[in-house]
Amino acid sequence: MTGKTFSEKLLSAKAGEDVRAGAYVEAAVDVAMAHDITGPLAFETFYEVTGEDATLFAPDRTVLTIDHHAPADGVEAANNHNALRRFAAEHGAHQFEVGDGICHAVLVEEGFVGPGDLVVGADSHSTTYGGIGAFGTGVGSSDLGTALATGELWFRVPETIRFEVNGDLPDGVYAKDLVLKFIGDVGFAGCTYETAEYAGSAIESLPIHERLVLANMAIEMGGKAGYVEPDDRTAEYLERQTGRAVDIDPSLRSDDDATYDEVHTYRAADLAPQVSKPSNPENAVDVTEVEGTEIDQLFVGTCTNGRYEDIKLVADVLEGEELAPNVRMVVVPASGSVYRHMLKTGVFETLTDAGAVIQSAGCGPCAGYHQGVLGDGDVCLATANRNFAGREGSMDSHVYLASPATVGASALYGEITDPRRIETKRYDDTILAEVEA
């Protein structure tokens, strides 16, 4: 019999039985997460399941974040925030406040998830945790409420599509360009209920903040999960973040003879910076095809590209410069930690001197809630993960997706610009250690 994929191995371990893709299992959950939009509905299911004996399956592994309407943009949002606060206080769950950051950034930064964990979140971008070797997946609020009560959920073991990139990435090409290319090649539904596994020497060379980008956007091609095999770099990163040693189970990796549904291979040298045109991430093209498109707003942030390294890359481009006169820039860091790093290192000042507006950490503009929504006819170039019609505001606005490097270059010219026209940097995992020092 052929070997197994990571997803088959992990769900076998969590279910306590030997299973393959296509099987249905009841698996033990390691970590459960909800935020200020999905939490209140999840709590209703939790109480329906538990009745009078309302006890969390694992308070120390239950995380609640106030990040989507943060700060509250209305009374309904404020009431949802209070619902999370009350639930956390009553049941002992971990609860992160306004400004602490986006759920997917916080769970990784604070060490709640690790390699080999099964993580369920009431948010579609819970696939992010695969960037450090976990099986992360988004579930509905009702499913999350059930998991909070029982610590288990039913899963269909997913098939796996492998994306393999070998060689050295060219200048101007980052993880965001890779994943946009993958989504463009297989389509928005090309990986539906499958695991997107990213591999090859180019992927192995990526720092953790870029691996998280790949896993995060697995959902944009329908993926149930995204996965990058954890390695020494993963362990070192997590130890720096948390101060705790991290053990990686070498058996929880895809076997060399595992069966894949599809395998897509790429030569890194052949790849170019990508931009996804409105109004679907699958509309990915080489940046040269849309270069010169005039833009009104630039958005830097989200759970995809709102980490310190992403924002510093933009700041490096803008240092000593000003935004093109016809554009505005909204910057929203992914976490309070990133915000503080920006203040400490001068990145905050560089961006504001250039004309950018910096908001507190959260999700606001990405889903068109607040902090910089788009009006009729507005054209935005964003480091976000989705560009559906109306995603960031008006149904008549137009959102293009790109890497921080492309957004930074475009800020200088007021139009979509190939980042290869300027010098851009590539950061490894030691930059945050340098900031802390």
From TrEMBL:
[4Fe-4S] cluster binds at residues 303, 363, 366. Binds 1 [4Fe-4S] cluster per subunit. The keyword 4Fe-4S applies. GO terms for molecular function: 3-isopropylmalate dehydratase activity; 4 iron, 4 sulfur cluster binding; metal ion binding. PANTHER family: HOMOACONITASE, MITOCHONDRIAL-RELATED, ISOPROPYLMALATE_CITRAMALATE ISOMERASE LARGE SUBUNIT. Heterodimer of LeuC and LeuD. Belongs to the aconitase/IPM isomerase family. LeuC type 2 subfamily. This is 3-isopropylmalate dehydratase large subunit. It comes from Halogeometricum pallidum JCM 14848.
